[in-house]
Design a protein that fits this description.
Elements (H helix, E strand, L loop, with lengths): L3 E5 L4 H12 L3 E6 L10 E5 L5 H11 L6 E4 L14 H29 L2 E6 L11 H21 L4 E8 L28 H12 L10 E4 L8
Parallel strand pairs: 1-2, 1-4, 2-3, 4-5, 5-6, 6-7
Helix pairs in contact: 1-5, 2-3, 3-4
Length: 231
């Protein structure tokens, strides 16, 4: 039987690219997204779920306990921008709940099961913005928190055959770039002269979920197109 991966944000952008790549690699995939699924496959099971809905998330996690997946990819994300003096508390809360709180709830259920099984893989999708960017402080804070979570969880499960890593792309060609909520905050084109492709992120995620990456854990790995080169 194929191994199973749970992918959040599976209907678009990086999450959809990861879903398609894992299916092509032979995985079974459970996709959680508030949007309708964009993938159809015999090994794909979609669940319509708002990760910020505490009741529905609890129900979904309870159902996982009977047959937990062997891998988790937390790709669900949202971007709200705002400069000092115009920061919106609701925007910060939304990003924190979706990026950090949801990841914590899911990992708190799945990682103990992975430890008991003696195997498991977790990849969180972060952002180069976690190092700070004007006008995106709330988003940066939520993504920086994911780095701390990944390293902390990795340290807890490193001896149990479980790895936890974070992939941090620079500006990626996804529907998030066209979100009107980010008007006035254009993406920074990486030095390679183009946006990162979701399929490039998915390829790295697929590697980190595989057996060859067993010695890689607790790492923040950038796919930056050269954006991290200037110091």
């Amino acid at each position: 039987m194929s191994a199973t991966a749970l992918v959040t944000g599976s209907s678009s952008g990086i999450g959809a690219a990861v879903t398609r790549r894992l299916l092509a690699d032979g995985w079974r995939v459970q996709g959680w997204d508030v949007a309708a699924p964009s993938v159809e496959h015999e090994r794909f099971e979609a669940l319509s779920l708002d990760l910020c809905d505490e009741v529905r998330l609890s129900e979904a996690l309870a159902a996982q306990r009977a047959a937990p997946p062997q891998a988790l990819v937390h790709a669900a994300g949202v971007l709200r921008t705002g400069a000092l003096g115009a920061l919106q508390a609701a925007d910060g809360e939304l990003m924190w709940r979706l990026h950090v709180h949801a990841a914590t709830r899911i990992a708190d259920t799945l990682l103990p099961a992975m430890r008991s099984a003696g195997r498991g893989r977790v990849v969180l999708i972060g952002s180069r913005v976690s190092h700070g960017m004007p006008g995106r402080s709330q988003y940066a804070a939520s993504k920086a928190a994911l780095v701390a979570l990944a390293r902390s969880w990795a340290a807890e499960v490193v001896a149990d055959g479980v790895t936890v890593n974070l992939v941090a792309p620079a500006a990626t060609d996804t529907p998030m770039l066209a979100d009107p909520q980010r008007s006035g905050s254009a993406p920074r084109l990486p030095p390679i002269g183009r946006l990162i492709r979701p399929e490039e992120v998915a390829a790295l995620v697929a590697y980190l979920l595989g057996p060859e990456a067993a010695a890689i854990t607790g790492q923040e790995i950038a796919i930056c197109g050269g954006a991290s080169l200037p110091k």
